[in-house]
């Protein structure tokens, strides 16, 4: 069995190729059961979450990701996401690769947002606001820049020092990156707004949003978490990574539905329907679009196969 390091995983998952791999996977017919989702109490901090995410294909390998999300790791200077991905031979079931789960997760998660933006963000989008300074943030910036001509990035975080540090590490001759102190100003400035936080209270307000923007919501992966308010969701044409996951687990969808601010029918389509061409994404340059992801084992499965193919 091959042990695949974080560096080898990242090097195998360049975003242009990975976004295409995800689009192919969503247009395909792999089997993806609803993920197992378990809360683990952590004394003195937020609960941890254990995720078990299997997927397989009749003519392909079998895979499963085992991940724990530990919000308290932020105070320890560690990533919130830890885990591994096991890929097994399609015929014998023999383990073929054990892939770094943290790197696989951040790359595929960012690529899913980029695939959403490919369908939903304006073609001329060049200003990106990154809300959040965690492990996902630099990957989301890179991913969005792979599908849209992003030239300017502003980063907002609850800790301004972290935002400054991240901005300085990413600033370059081709990508101007700087921290922003006022979230409202950042939202009003951006073409694309990408959020990756563990917030339990709305951050992006619908009253701040401007014509033609695309809102990418990544962080609120449980029903009691959210990154946008009801007005933001109401003003946008809504899309999700999967209906089954986002309508059950994504607080940015679940909470406004429970409050009666939106209904199930307001969710236009998921990545399966977009990738298969069944539903049109952005219709014009003026509409507001929203993409909510909570993650699906299909994304890990497609990414893990790309890693194995690149290293073979």
Automatic annotation (TrEMBL):
Protein known as: Ornithine cyclodeaminase family protein
The organism is Fodinicurvata halophila
Q: Which NCBIfam families match?
A: PRK06141.1
Q: Which Pfam families match?
A: OCD_Mu_crystall
InterPro entries in the cross-refs: NAD(P)-bd_dom_sf, ODC_Mu_crystall, ODC_N
